[in-house]
Amino acid sequence: MNFFWVLRAQSIKRYAVVILAALFAAWFLFLQNVLHAPVFSTPDGPKAVYKGEKNIALTFNIGWGDKQASPILKTLKNEKITSATFFLSGSWAERHPEIVATIVKEGYEIGILGYSYVDYSDLEDEEIIKDISKAQEAFKKLNVTDIKLLRAPTGHFDKRLLKIGERFGYTIVHWSVDSKDWTNPGVNAIVQNVDKANKGDIVLMHASDSAKQTNKALPELIQELRSKDLNFVTVSEMISNSSTKHEEIQ
C-alpha cells in the first residue's frame, strides 16, 4: 500500500510540474499579446524597430529641398535638443554636403533613407541592394561612415528588406507616432499628432521642403513632450537601452 501511495505522489508531482509549465507559457504568450511590441521581426531573426521602452526619439526624413532643413537644425539647437536622428537619402546628401556637415557637427545621428526615393516593396531584391549600396557610397564620400540605421524611403517594407538590411549590418527603423507634417495640416494639428507620443515612441517628422510647417510646430511640440518628463535620445540610444519583443511581418 505504501508503495502505491509513493507512485501516486510521484505522478501527482509530475502532473503539477507540467501544469505549472503550461500556465507559465500561457502567461508569457498573454504578455506578448497585451504589451505593445516595439519590434517587427521575421521568425528567423531580422528586426525592424518602431518603439522602445523609455525616452523619446525625434526622427526627420530628408529626401529633397534645402529650405527647411537648416531652419529645423537651428530650432533644435535653440531648443537645446542635442539628440535626434536624421534619415537622409543618398542623392539628397550628395547635393547638400554642407547641411550634412552641419548635422554631423551638431552631434545628431544619421541613418540611410536609401539613395533614390523609391518604394522598396515594388523593387526586386537586386534593385534594393543596388540602391542601398549607392547610398553607402554617397555617404562614404562625405566621410559619414558609421551608419547603423536604415529606413525604407516610403515607409513600406517587408521580410525581404529585413533580411537585406541584416546582410548590410543595418537595423531597419520604422516609427510609432506619425506627425503627418508632410501633409501640412497646420501647426496645431502637427503638435496634437506628436502629443500622442509617450515613453519609448519613435516620432516621424520631415525636414524636406514639402513639410512647410514642421519648423513652426517644433518649439511647441518639444515643450509638450518635455512636460511629460521625456528625455530626447537618438534611435540608437533608444535601442541600446531597450529590450525587444517580436511580431512577425507577413
From TrEMBL:
<dbReference type="InterPro" id="IPR002509">
    <property type="entry name" value="NODB_dom"/>
</dbReference>
<feature type="domain" description="NodB homology">
    <location>
        <begin position="54"/>
        <end position="233"/>
    </location>
</feature>
<dbReference type="InterPro" id="IPR014132">
    <property type="entry name" value="PdaB-like"/>
</dbReference>
<dbReference type="InterPro" id="IPR050248">
    <property type="entry name" value="Polysacc_deacetylase_ArnD"/>
</dbReference>
<dbReference type="Pfam" id="PF01522">
    <property type="entry name" value="Polysacc_deac_1"/>
</dbReference>
<dbReference type="InterPro" id="IPR011330">
    <property type="entry name" value="Glyco_hydro/deAcase_b/a-brl"/>
</dbReference>
<protein>
    <submittedName>
        <fullName>Polysaccharide deacetylase family sporulation protein PdaB</fullName>
    </submittedName>
</protein>
